[in-house]
Design goal:
single chain; alpha/beta; Rossmann fold; 6-stranded mixed sheet; 3-stranded antiparallel sheet
Length: 362
């Protein structure tokens, strides 16, 4: 039996409708509908019937345009579905939306262990020092310094030279582990759609801007499983427990096969670990914090630390008991933890990823 949950954030919909952003509205509805394009289209028709979309808007023409752009197409069963082009457009849209919201001074800078090859020139400059690479020389600023010192006579000296600051780009292998347990849609709050949007945006960021990096995505409920990046729009929460230990085990195994020197797990969850796998069987206990489950999960976090895999936990709940567990997991792994609102989740994760893959070169 398939379980499906639906929730539409009213504030988000009001904002999209007020701006007549049909493309973004369609993408948001598709994600909320688990990738079901026809259901998203029907929701848009319902919104128009209820007066939220003005009657002058020709939705059928908009849907035809989606087909003409090959964002949706025949599913082989008489209906319409997202095409591969449509999936890429949703991924790019999620990236543009979340990346544009990043603010200066977001999550703090944390140093990384190893620097990869390559460097990136920064706009900031500093005085030249012997041994600096001359191709990073800031010519215009150096000439300005000389003219200022000589009051208009061009006599360039070493003291006038300025060099652009640079950052080494670190090579990262990342596993994004998304909790798909029942609590991700419990109490009428949709936490799975923001998690999907983050996964889409992070995938787009890495594949377009950091092609030497690696990203894998896994889902965990009663069990953990890796999913293809093309499956991201179709992720749904289900009637599952939370097997955090198996998620960390699978992530650690995936990272062990990657050559990048920096390895990390981004763990998105809103609940306590309530399941473990032993001997091929899943042991579950949804009542309180089962110390058998907790201790084995913490042991796995310590094993990640031993293999230099950093766990960054994005916690979508603030219950003291749950935050205490996350703090223990973070201390055990020597990782990081953020207590984030689901609708600011993208800002936390994208900012953290970008800042932690760089090292300033002086």
């Amino acid at each position: 039996m398939r379980h499906r949950y639906r929730y539409l954030d009213p504030a988000l919909l009001r904002g999209l409708l007020a701006g007549h952003q049909l493309q973004r509205l369609f993408q948001q509805l598709v994600l909320a509908a688990g990738g079901d394009a026809e259901e998203a289209m029907e929701w848009m028709r319902q919104l128009q019937r209820r007066g939220h979309i003005h009657q002058s808007v020709d939705l059928e023409a908009f849907f035809e345009a989606l087909e003409e752009q090959r964002l949706i197409g025949p599913d082989g069963e008489g209906g319409l579905a997202l095409t591969s082009t449509g999936e890429r457009r949703i991924r790019r849209g999620a990236f543009e939306e979340l990346f544009s919201s990043l603010r200066r001074g977001g999550p703090g800078y944390h140093p990384v262990r190893s620097a990869g090859e390559g460097s990136e020139r920064l706009p900031e400059t500093r005085p030249y020092r012997f041994g600096d690479e001359l191709h990073h020389l800031d010519g215009p600023r150096s000439l300005q310094n000389a003219l200022k010192r000589t009051h208009g006579r061009l006599q360039l000296r070493e003291e006038d030279l300025e060099i652009h600051e640079t950052e080494h780009l670190t090579a990262c292998a990342t596993v994004l582990a998304i909790d798909i347990s029942h609590s991700m849609i419990l109490y009428g709050e949709d936490r799975i759609t923001p998690a999907k949007k983050v996964a889409l945006a992070l995938t787009e960021l890495i594949t377009t801007r950091y092609p030497k990096d690696h990203i894998s995505v896994l889902l965990f409920g009663d069990r953990a499983e890796q999913v293809d990046l093309s499956a991201l729009p179709y992720i749904e929460a289900g009637p599952y427990h939370t097997n955090t230990r198996e998620a960390l085990q699978l992530a650690r195994g995936l990272l062990s096969r990657q050559k990048q020197p920096n390895k990390q797990i981004f763990l998105i969850t809103d609940g306590k670990p309530s399941a473990i796998t032993q001997g091929g069987e899943v042991y579950k206990n949804p009542f309180g914090l089962d110390m058998r489950i907790v201790n084995l999960t913490l042991e796995e976090a310590d094993q990640c630390r031993r293999q230099k895999v950093v766990i960054t936990t994005f916690m979508l709940a603030t219950d003291p008991t749950l935050t205490d567990f996350v703090e223990k997991l973070t201390r055990t792994n020597r990782g990081r933890a953020y207590y984030a609102d689901p609708y600011n989740l993208g800002e936390f994760i994208l900012a953290d990823y970008i800042k932690n893959r760089r090292r300033r070169v002086r």
